[in-house]
Amino acid sequence: MCHRNAPLTPTGRLRLARCVVEDGYSRREAAERFGVSPRTAHRWARRYRDEGEAGMGDRPSRPHHSPARTPAATEQQVLDLRREHRLGPLRLAARTGIGPATCHRILTRRGMAPLAACDRATGEPVRRYERARPGDLVHIDVKKLGRIPDSGGHKVLGRAAGRSNKDTDGRGRGYLFLHTALDDHSRLAYTEILTDETAPTCAGFLRRAVAWFARRGVTARRVLTDNAWAYTKTTWRTTCRQLGIGPRWTRPWRPQTNGKVERFHLTLLEEWAYQRPYTCEAQRQAAFGDWLDWYNYHRPHTGIGGRTPASRVTNLPGHHT
Questions:
Q1: Residue 118 confidence (pLDDT) above 90
Q2: Is the pTM of the predicted complex or chain greater than 0.85?
Q3: Residues pairing with 72 in the sheet
């Protein structure tokens, strides 16, 4: 691709070269006609004599020889350390004795994916997927969230007051459970704040979530959950069968498979649950409806090219509100 300010395109170069080689123009005359230097006219005329029309294209600026290039043995050491220890350029530089920028160039040249795009367990690039239509797959998960005491939590009163959130009797009285259903294609999300994560509660949430998506023109066909106790019981399987939904489960110890809803919960915590100090749980829950509406209809989602989840659902009511 030519530079935007280049005086000659490949077609212009060919015309210039033909003026010199075939029409008898001097290099200076041809240079004046095309608004370039005589040296440039000489270069394109020489290439035309040697290579014909094929020589009029751009060539890479990379030098033919790079005597200062990092030795192959050092490059291999960088690659081996990266694969074995999952190190970034700065730590690789400390181990190999070369600069971080050099390590980064080696990794890029050899096609090594950034650490952020790799699986932590295997070091292999994460395989990302996305269903073709809304409803083809709905991710479901539960996030445990500590309640805020009526007098305020530790962000308002300090750590001592936050002890009232502690689950002292083992029955979850100090916690709420955020049940979320998130569409794989659009990232449209439905969340309820419930008091437990038992099998009947999860099944009831699934029924309401399916109805919520249906009112927005999305028919849930499959649901993906982890292997939590509530999702492996007969209650869950029966509810899925009654709704005409195919249940799917992630591989054990592989939460990345359900990563879209896991990432949504992180966003939810950062931008709603812990976004500001709340004086009581009721105040935090009162702010949740507006946040979820903003997420679905107005918040640009980086995972879908900066669009909003609602924009990926055809004719969704309220999309343009």
A1: no
A2: no
A3: none
